[in-house]
Amino acid sequence: MAGYPYTSLHDLALKDIEWERWQRLVNSIAALFNSPVAFINQASNKGIEVLVASELPTTHYSPGGSASIETNVYCHKVVRSNSPLYVKDASKTNEWDNNPEVTEDNYVSYLGYPIHWPDGKCFGTLCVMDTSPTNYKQPFLEMLEVLRDVISSDLAHLYKESELKIESRLDPLTEIHNRRGFEEAFIQFQKLGNRLNRAAQLLFIDLNNFKKINDTLGHKAGDEVLKRFANALRSCIRKTDLLCRWGGDEFVVLLNNEDKVAQKEFIERIKEKQENDFKNYGYKEICFSVGAVEVVPNINCDLTQLLHKADNIMYSCKKD
Ligand SMILES: Nc1nc2c(ncn2[C@@H]2O[C@H](COP(=O)(O)OP(=O)(O)OP(=O)(O)O)[C@@H](O)[C@H]2O)c(=O)[nH]1
């Protein structure tokens, strides 16, 4: 196992992260404890990763540095037990004999508190280390605990922000990308496609006579049809493809496939799936129209133009 099941905060595009405040806080902790190092560490997919380190010449590890899950560093014990650890003098036990923080950097004293995710799971640690044995008084321990709470509360805000970010890019009814989410994902997709010189297939799909369902069976039944259709689409694409409810009864699919045949195969798959699904559900007459275009890397990759073209093709199919 490479690390813990969380992405490094450094890899998340969170705008409001409190790096500067966290930095000042860590520097102040090192000064107050008169210690050569203080850190905020994260239990990330890299192991224990330094997020913020005190800015002192005596601080030997810097942000981005990490210790793998197999290394016997103090923080792993805090994360695994999700409880504080105070080692006053590591030389008094043999537990830390193979800890490189002790053997290589002589950090024989460690005080660390777990920082929590909003659900109570361990996010990482707030810790101070020293090259001499220590015997911190109770108010110092309490102060570090309170500062840990401040970081946990910052984290709860960040968590909310990233959740909101995800929510604002999903269509609440079908739980697939909304227009905004798709447009953003398309930009990333396109960058990669251009770099790799890889084509893709874009499909604009519109349900036929959907209004009739609303008018005859009610809006709720209409919603159910949209959800079922989105699920049918989802089951016919790969994880590397993109799916979006463009609006109303319109959907957009981007197939990460260079072969134009993929368009036809996808349409066949979705027809078969949707016919079976809706037959069971009692909506035999539901069908859809599709317009498909190829996204050619570095040539025709403007989303608005591509969708306009696909929409026109779809519309002429609908009329036929
Ligand atoms: N139930 C439900 N209906 C919606 C939703 N969003 C849009 N609609 C309805 O979808 C209908 C779309 O109508 P049209 O664009 O005429 O589509 P259509 O009836 O499929 O007609 P054609 O596309 O020409 O086949 C409108 O009646 C909208 O009110 C939604 O979230 N839920």
Automatic annotation (TrEMBL):
Catalytic activity, reaction form: 2 GTP = 3',3'-c-di-GMP + 2 diphosphate
Entry-linked Pfam families: GAF, GGDEF
InterPro entries per record: Diguanylate_Cyclase, GAF, GAF-like_dom_sf, GGDEF_dom, Nucleotide_cyclase, Rev_trsase/Diguanyl_cyclase
All residue ranges annotated as the GGDEF domain in the record: 198-320
EC nos: 2.7.7.65
Domain of life according to the entry: Bacteria
Ranges that cross the membrane: none
PANTHER family documented for this protein: DIGUANYLATE CYCLASE DGCM-RELATED, REGULATORY COMPONENTS OF SENSORY TRANSDUCTION SYSTEM
Protein name listed in UniProt: diguanylate cyclase
Source organism of this protein record: Pseudoalteromonas lipolytica
